[in-house]
Amino acid sequence: MEGTSRARAAPPRVGLFVTCLVDLYRPSTGFAAVHLLEAAGCEVAVPRGQTCCGQPAFNSGDAGTARALARSIIDRFEGFDYLVAPSGSCAGMIRRHLPELFAGDAGWRERAEGLADRTWELTSFLVDVCGAPAAERLRGAEAPRGVRRATYHDSCSGLRELGVREQPRRLLAGVAGLDLVEMPDAEVCCGFGGTFCVKYPGVSGRMVSEKVENIAAAGAEAVLAGDVGCLLNIAGRMRREGRAGRVFHVAEVLAGMADRGIGEPAVGSPGTTAAGGGSGGGSGRGRAPER
Amino acid sequence: MSAGSGGAPAGSAPAGGRDRVLGAVRAAVRRDPAEAAVRRAEIEARIAAREVHVRPPVEGDLTARFAEKVALVASTFAPVKGVDRVSKAVADYLDEHGLGREIVVTTDPLVEQVRWSNEFAVARRAADPDDRVSVTGAFAGIAETGTLVFVSDRRTPTTLNFLPETHVAVLARDRLVPHLEDVWERLRDERADSPRTVNFITGPSRTGDIELQLEIGAHGPRRLHVLLVDV
Amino acid sequence: MIPESHRFPDRAGLALADEGLRLALDRARQGFIGNRRKAVDALPEFPALREAARRIKDHTLSNLDLYLERFESQVTASGGQVHWAADAPAARARIIDICREAGARTVTKGKSMVGEEVALNEALEEAGLEVVETDLGEYIIQLADETPSHIVAPAIHKTREEIRDLFAKHHAPLGLGPPGLGNAELVARAREVLRRDFLRADVGITGANFLIAESGSTVIVTNEGNGDLSNTLPRVHIVIAGIEKVLPGYEDLCTVLRLLARSATGQEMSVYTTVSTGPRRSADLDGPEEFHVVLVDNGRSGMLGGEFREMLRCIRCGACLNHCPVYHAVGGHAYGWVYTGPMGSVLTPLIVGLDRAHHLPNACTLNGRCEQVCPMSIPLPSMLRKLRARGFERGLGTRTSRLGLAMWGFLARRPALYRPVAGAAMGVMGWLGRRRGAFRRVPLAGGWTAVRDLPAPEGETFQRAWRRRGSGGR
After folding, report:
1. Main-chain phi, psi angles of A225, to 5 degrees
2. C279-317 confidence digits (pLDDT tens)
3. How many Cβ pairs closer than 8 A exist between chain A and C?
4. What CATH number has the domain bearing residue A11?
5. CA dihedral in degrees (C55, C61, C67, C68; nearest 10)?
6. Whole-Å CA distances, C295 to B20, C48, C127, C238, C343
7. How many domains does chain C have?
8. Domain span at residue C320?
9. What pLDDT, on a 0 to 100 scale, did the predictor assign at position C151?
10. Closest by alpha carbon to C140, among C312, B138, C149?
11. Could you tell me if C405 lies within 8 Å of chain B, comparing CB atoms?
């Protein structure tokens, strides 16, 4: 790691780009990310005033809004050694597309490129930047209660824009009592696609139902991914189909902070929610114990 | 009928077509007329250079590689020791498939050397719709992919490669080349002008158009048999 | 055909309800993806070939005017004739003229996507010609009066039962009874019937996978051999090709051929790669007496001059379709025109107009699998994004989605407003969803809840919880 030696003197300063979906929907993922980054020896800050990476605007063709948000991200994060996001999608936006937004503006473009180069998706940051010793320190988290077999869904941007594939799997191999099993077509899109999923619900629904089928086919009790967008989509579909099976952001499992899965009730026992329809789904998953 | 040929009478080229298309293309590539001659010379030089780009290595024995690839594309292969044994090799193959002795053949130098045994009824012409078996001389064979190359001229009509159900290709061993590119090299060396048709044929005719299931023998030959002849 | 791409949502809905189609698409996906994978894995040089092919094509496109002129002069020198068509009507008219001059009554056709693009068959038929598609897939959809649903396998959506019924109906007038249901029987029947057509056709029309400037040759790549019968048996051979199909020389062709079949079907080489140069030579025993090449622009020069030039590298292999999860869900007909899947979602708006096809670039998750497998490294997702930007500028799309996006953008740019609004909304939703953990219905989120529940948020936003926990200094 470029910062290993430096880390001993002064730990790398990481600005956590929490992402709007984690901020709004899944704070647990954010706390898990902070925990992991600190365990890896980083100094973590959450810059104030952050909202969204601008991807919905960028992908809808609204470059103006995307550019305004990009400037605000650059202002808030360029003072850090790294920007890390618990999302392949948002990190991909910043790393791959931010500079594109300033094609005609050399000054901003340079700043955008500077930030893009220091932007990482969480699991790839932990493995590729923090390096082996840090990754070693992250080993030993306990598997979520009631989960022995989990499968990992490769979110598209992380996989194809950032090359995130082995890193989360390598880290998950260090989780005690957890078997990682591969599902068929793990690398195929779940049908979320940002605004796509609400603009074309029928098509999106077919895609996510196939994803959910593949998760069941893997015989996994939990599905993990690095993007809350995919996870909301998958969890929502599992609930709709009445399938058992729990849904966590990979950071939550790595941090040993996977308690209530996405789409599970806040009151009552965790993990009892998805049993409603009872059709299909992972078989014979052990009930999570009472809190 | 549709307008669009600019009202040009049937039989004449639509006057504006060429200028309109080429004009639009020139504008699109921002062609500077002052430089066009230089650029034209550059592309001529590029074409003349015949630069080979990326070629997968073809290592080891060409014949073995060729035979292996031919088998992978649902064709059959038999080595033949000398032109004098071709007649027997063809007869054996036809017997195997119950195909009689009527054949139509090309008149290229290699196939012309074959002394067909008396039992054969041999025609030398382009293919007729009712022909069942053709025996044609190949211009080259490509070890890289198990491909046969046929070149049209007065001795080697193209239809013989397509109309009969059974196609027996006769290839001289010294015409086996490693790569696709080598065929063009040979063609340029050996032919003053380019032939009307160059066929690269890799296996018998096939289709996957019904439920994506592979079916051999769509419109072209159902069988392709390759005789590799030591000459 | 008249583009129906503006009806993508309806057409997709119909496709999603079609169980037969679903089976066909599953089968297609399995076959195409697995076969391509094997072929690519077996060739370590594949990435280097990809890079070389991209350079070849970029060079050719930057000099397209010169290469087209070179191609034309070589066609002429070998005794053929080049015709130029700025748009679809010009292409149709020119080909009808050639057929009339030849006194033609019957035309056999090899598969040509640009022929589909300019709606050639309908025009020829209106002009009184009998047109027979001879590629088995194209033949089947011609009998069914449909458009191709896949650029490589046009009748991928048809079951053998449907094909048998089509043959039974259309072959009865020829005195043939219904064929058997076996694959071999159906293929044999098509062979038998189409053989008659090949032998009586006056004109053969084929497309071209490539045009070679070095020699004025046209190249077709097929598996069935129908293209070869079309370009050898009839008296007149007409090639219809987009202007972007030119390659400089034979060595360039070799490089791109190594990518094409592997990407399309997983073969190392398709069965027939045929290079045609001019009409038959004087002493030849067969081959056409006339050779015409109709070069079609129809929007391509516009792409060449703008931000969509890279799309002209496309070699129509179909790999992007085969790997597209949206294509896999809805099939080709949902796209409403002749080009489908990711390449179709770029080409259709550029050829027929964005206002008639604005759904296509939007009906994509930007998952990037198409770009990953494209042998010509076309950045399809970024092109789809550029088309979305054009649509946004022109105010296309539904009012609701534009409004939603505008509201979200307004808040996201104002953190001081975003924080309390988001905080309040998530608080309410978290509380409402605390018992069930997810919502079945949510006002204004019908697109989401139509097919899935909406998981409830945890309640407090991360940023608020973070500050509350006294981590605010960080």
Report:
1. -160, 170
2. 999 999 999 999 999 999 999 999 999 999 999 999 999
3. 225
4. 3.40.50
5. 150
6. 12, 31, 21, 11, 21
7. 3
8. 314-393
9. 87
10. C149
11. no
Chains with 3 or more CB pairs under 8 A to chain C: A, B
With tokens 């390659």, the residue in question is C247
Quickly name the fold that domain B62-229 has. Rossmann fold (3.40.50)
DSSP for B89-119 reads: HHHHHHHHTT--SEEEE--SHHHHT----TT
Q: Is the dihedral of CA C252, C254, C258, C259 positive or negative?
A: positive
**Residue A260 belongs to domain spanning:** 138-275
Distance from the Cα of C344 to chain A's closest Cα (Å) equals 17
Bridge-based pairing of strands C210-212 and C217-222 is: antiparallel
Q: Enter the tokens of residue C198.
A: 């090949």
Same domain, A121 and A144: no
Q: Which two tokens stand for residue C43?
A: 């060739």
B172 - beta bridge partners?
Answer: B229
Instruction: For residues A264 and A142, state if they share a domain.
Output: yes
pLDDT at B92 over 90: yes
Residues from chain C contacting residue B157 (CB–CB below 8 Å): 284-287
d(CA A151, CA A224) in angstroms, rounded, equals 6
Is A165 a domain residue?
yes
DSSP code per residue over C114-139? HHHHTTHHHHHHHTT-EEEE-SHHHH
Closest Cα of chain C to A249: distance in Å? 14
Q: How far apart are CA C256 and CA C262, in angstroms?
A: 10
The C residues from 430 to 469 touching A (CB cutoff 8 Å) are 430, 433-438, 440, 445-448, 450-463, 465-466
Average pLDDT, chain B: 92
Residue labelled with tokens 């309640």 = C459
Query: Can you tell me the mean pLDDT for B125-149?
Result: 97
Cβ <8 Å between A23 and C463: yes
Q: Which residues of C touch B197 (CB under 8 A)?
A: 231-232, 274-277, 287
* pLDDT of res. C206: 98
